[in-house]
Amino acid sequence: MIVGKVVGSVVATRKNEGLLGSKFMIVEPLENMEKRGRIVAVDNVGAGIGEIVLVALGSAARIGCALDTAPVDAAIVGIVDDSIGLTEDK
Amino acid sequence: MIVGKVVGSVVATRKNEGLLGSKFMIVEPLENMEKRGRIVAVDNVGAGIGEIVLVALGSAARIGCALDTAPVDAAIVGIVDDSIGLTEDK
Amino acid sequence: MIVGKVVGSVVATRKNEGLLGSKFMIVEPLENMEKRGRIVAVDNVGAGIGEIVLVALGSAARIGCALDTAPVDAAIVGIVDDSIGLTEDK
Amino acid sequence: MIVGKVVGSVVATRKNEGLLGSKFMIVEPLENMEKRGRIVAVDNVGAGIGEIVLVALGSAARIGCALDTAPVDAAIVGIVDDSIGLTEDK
Amino acid sequence: MIVGKVVGSVVATRKNEGLLGSKFMIVEPLENMEKRGRIVAVDNVGAGIGEIVLVALGSAARIGCALDTAPVDAAIVGIVDDSIGLTEDK
Question: C13, C40, D9, D24: which has the fewest Cβ within 10 Å?
Fold first, then answer.
């Protein structure tokens, strides 16, 4: 998983039917994370813009969020309240 | 998922039979997205050149678009009509 | 999927038995594609050196080419005859 | 898999229920590894901060750690005690 | 798949039980390959340090090497004896 900040959202009226009812949030990974650019993730926990969240990528997003047959490859699966070593240098 | 612009299409007469009937679009991810170069995605929503689309990657493209046994690893699954924070800086 | 050029091939006599009978081609992605370096892909369509091909990555290569239990993560699944916007700038 | 150093941890009170009971560690891949930035991995072996660990990525993390239906895409699956050629040049 | 050179190995006494009996080799991808840094791969063919090998990544490593429930995301699946165009320029 990676940790990122919710910076926006996307609306798509015409979409795959497996995506109906999903909210698409734009997540910017924190600076030292393995992923460097923005990801569109389905919101699984009620995250809002500005929150720091945990994002699962790949089949984990689909299967771990009961979206088994939806074309989803990223999901917000937690809201980060606390951390050690998240942004500091090694 | 990532958001990108449809910039072209690819024709392959000789191909895996699971791909028969699929339309292959070339998608250029928006500049601040996690993916930086062009992706060939199967069109699942009737997208045209120039449109801004939502692309699902990996097994999500295959399973989420009822192409379970096709060699597909990317699919256009939505057409973006509106967004907050898609292109702006943090 | 990505589009690339077949630039060579690899021979491995000692290999996992699921790979027996497969031809391993070296594919160089076109310059503006999402993948930047060479990939070894199983040939599913009879591609030759110098041809421009469509390559599927990840589980799609395995499952989409009836190689479900083989350790294959990339496959040539089409030969590109024509395209719009494949190499041009946005 | 990649080898990295555990540099911290993340706490998320509001999270997907498949993640209840999991410990989220922040792993910094060693310098010459294929992954360059930090990854949040579920701890499967009781790793502590400062330890050098083996991390499995993708569906392997989920399925290999009996977390089949959890949104987990990275797991610490071993603690490295010894190695040859881990940090040296080629 | 990618082609790389076996440059070392890793020992982990405390590990996920699905990894018992597996040998973890460190593979350095050849210079023009899609993956740029070192990968820890389970050895499926008896590869030794210094050998040039074929590495399968992702679920292919697990499922293609009969390690379906092990947290394995990379495996050495062939030893390269010969090649055309592996290291040359386009």
Answer: C13
User: Rg (Cα) of chain B, in Å, rounded?
Assistant: 13
B56 with A69: Cβ contact below 8 A: no
Chain C residues whose CB is inside 8 A of the E2 CB are 38-40
Residue of chain A with shortest Cα separation from B60 = A71
Residues of A in contact with B80 (CB under 8 A): 10-12
Chains that touch B (3 or more CB pairs under 8 A): A, C
- Cβ distance D72 to A83 less than 8 Å, yes or no, reads no
d(CA E53, CA C66): 24
Q: In angstroms, what CA-CA distances link C34 with A21, A23, B78, C1, C25?
A: 30, 26, 20, 9, 19
Ranking B2-16, B76-90, E58-72 by mean pLDDT, the lowest is B76-90
* Cβ pair A1:D36 closer than 8 A: no
Residues 6+ positions from D41 with CB-CB distance below 8 Å? A1, D24, D25, D26, D27, D55, D61, D74, D75, D76
Q: Which among C74, C85, C83, C20 is positioned nearest to C47, based on CA atoms?
A: C74
Dump pLDDT digits (tens) for E19-57. 999 999 999 999 999 999 999 999 999 999 999 999 999
The residue in chain C having the minimum alpha-carbon distance to the alpha carbon of residue B55 is: C1
With cut-offs at 50, 70 and 90, classify the pLDDT of residue B61. very high
Q: Which CATH superfamily is domain A2-11+21-79 in?
A: EutN/Ccml (2.40.50.220)
User: So what's the architecture of C2-10+21-79 in CATH?
Assistant: Beta Barrel (2.40)
Domain B2-10+23-79 has CATH 2.40.50.220: yes
Architecture label for domain D2-9+23-79: Beta Barrel (2.40)
- Residue A49: is its pLDDT beyond 70? yes
Percent of chain D scoring above 90 in pLDDT: 92
Contact E89, C8 (CB under 8 A): no
Would you call C14 and E78 a contact, using CB atoms and an 8 Å cutoff? yes
pTM of the model: 0.96
What is the arithmetic mean of pLDDT over B53-63?
98
Cβ–Cβ gap B10/C82 under 8 Å: yes
Closest Cα in chain D to A65: D71
Token pair for A49: 């813009």
Positions of chain C with pLDDT lower than 70, given as ranges:
88-90
Give per-residue pLDDT as tens, D29-55.
Answer: 999 999 999 999 999 999 999 999 999
